[in-house]
Amino acid sequence: MALHSAQKGRLIAVIGDEDTCTGFVLGGIGEIDKNRRPNFLVVDKNTSVPEIEDVFKSFVSRDDIAIILINQSFAEMIRHAIDKHTEPIPAVLEIPSKEAPYDASKDSILRRAKGMFSAEDFR
């Protein structure tokens, strides 16, 4: 993992199960900032909901993170915190996990985006 300081809003953060985080870290997104904070959280059966929420809030407040990827099953656990985040950056994207497929009806960010457009916009 690189220890250099990242440019503002250049990182992707991940909150996910072990397989999801491992895949993204192997793909090169792993980073540790100058305060030794990683840009990912591996959630397992011992991870508490408050811990997931605290990490999400810390990712939202960091100015070096542009996108937060979160397994949708974990996003459901902290839906209230995700719904409170209304800034465009960092963007929050809910992704499927190996255990749970993506369900667009549960994605509050997607529902919000759909509300911004009408069918007329796509003709």
Q: What ranges have pLDDT less than 50 throughout 5 or more consecutive residues?
A: 1-7
**Which of globular, elongated, flat, extended, rod-shaped describes the shape?**
globular
Number of strands: 4
Q: Compute the number of helices.
A: 5
CATH superfamily: ATPase, V1 complex, subunit F
For the biggest sheet, the summary is: 4 strands, parallel
Distance between the termini: 46 Å
Using the CA coordinates, give the radius of gyration.
Answer: 15 Å
Question: Biggest sheet, strands in spatial order?
Answer: 2-1-3-4
CATH top-level class:
Alpha Beta
Please estimate the helix content.
Answer: 25-40%
pLDDT averaged over residues: 84
Q: What's the CATH architecture name?
A: 3-Layer(aba) Sandwich
The CATH topology is what? Rossmann fold
Strand residue percentage: 15-25%
The helix-and-strand class reads alpha/beta
Give the H and E element order.
EHEHEHHEH
- How many domains? 1
